[in-house]
Each structure stands twice: as C-alpha cells, then as structure tokens.
Task: inverse folding
C-alpha cells in the first residue's frame, strides 16, 4: 500500500435485472500466472485501476475510458482481462460493459488489487 | 494470504565478500507492469516461489532447482526476472546465482511476494 492518499476501491451494489455475465473462469479456477499476465501492460493496468478508483456506474463501456486507441484493440484487451478472470463483462444490447471482479480477486489473491490501485501511471 | 500453513519467506543475512550484482533496475525504477509481466508464467513463478520458501543458501545457481529444461532456456528466464527487478544475480566464477529482491519488492509492491509464495503450483 502506498502512503499517499489514493481514493478507495469503489464497490457499488449490484443493480437488479443485470444481463448474465459473458463467459469467464469460475473464481476457483483463477490462476495467478494468468491474472498477472493479463495485467502486465500499462493499458491493462490503467483499465483496471480506473474501474477500481473512478467507476461512476456499476459497469462501464470501453468508450467511458476515453483511450485513444482503435476499438478493436480495446476490445481485445478487455476480452483478455475477462478471460483471465480480472473483469466481468455484460452485454447490454450493442454495448459491452465491464467491472472488476473485486470480491473474487480479493478472495483468491488478497492485496493484488491494492497494488493495481496504487500503480503509478507515469510513463516508464 | 492462504489459510494453509505455508513456510515463511526466508530471509538470510548477506554474507561478506559477495561479488557485485549483475546489472539490474534500481528499486525506485521498478515498474509494476514489468514485474507482473516477468512473473506471468508457471516456470517464473516456480523459480521465485522456491527461492522464497526453500532457499538453503544466500543465492542459488539454476542447477539447484532441478528443472528439466535446457540451460539456455533457464538462463533466459532468470535474466528476464533480473531485468524486471525480481531477482538479483551475482557471478561466482563460471556460476551465476540468484536471490529474490525481497526488501526492494516489499518496499515497492507490498504483498506481491506473499501472492507468489502462496501460489498453488498444481498444473492448470
């Protein structure tokens, strides 16, 4: 944990009537090597960090982040994070929204999300 | 932290007269995205986990691990871990030995080494 006063990880209640999550690994099948691999890039860390600290709604579409990247590239990164078990995604009509699997990751890898939340986003 | 009684991370005193470390990033230059990337494979996690929990000497050559892999492949993995800042390596004549940078990693990424120590090495 850093000694700076970063915002807390935001946990929001699950609203009723959500679409079913897209396919994802069960919590007991999460693998540390896979999760670390999925997180090992600045864009991936930025996605997860912003969802942790800045979420305004239960889940967010990739447009919310304002990344200056092609949508196909973003879709790939979000999918990789979902398939590793870091993000949960739901399809709302044409829009796919993401949240972080905070409870599942805290249960399996305690402290990992704090490291991501404390990540210093400055360019290397 | 798992609820199982895994061994503690072993910290051994630095013996006098060590060779200088091979080139490595300074503690303040460690980057989470780089460290996570370096750790994101079962062999890499196994190397670090065994050094953390099973070390018998201050540092160990790659032969100590008994991995059934070509030496060139192992050399590559150890070097990647050193260049990311996870391992410190020293050259003893013809032999290169490794230890985990426990203090540096705990200072920058608290809890990360516990996740590695708690890693469940069963095949995915």
Result:
């Amino acid at each position: 944990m850093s000694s700076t006063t970063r915002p807390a990880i935001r946990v929001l209640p699950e609203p009723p009537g959500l679409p079913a999550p897209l396919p994802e690994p069960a919590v007991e099948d999460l693998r540390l090597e896979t999760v670390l691999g999925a997180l090992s890039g600045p864009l991936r860390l930025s996605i997860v960090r912003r969802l942790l600290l800045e979420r305004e709604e239960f889940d967010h579409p990739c447009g919310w982040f304002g990344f200056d990247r092609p949508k196909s590239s973003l879709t790939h990164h979000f999918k990789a994070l979902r398939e590793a078990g870091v993000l949960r995604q739901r399809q709302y009509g044409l829009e796919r929204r993401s949240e972080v699997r905070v409870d599942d990751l805290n249960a399996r890898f305690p402290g990992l999300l704090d490291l991501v939340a404390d990540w210093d986003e400055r360019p290397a």
About this structure: The domain at 27-118 of chain B is CATH 1.10.10.10 (Arc Repressor Mutant, subunit A).
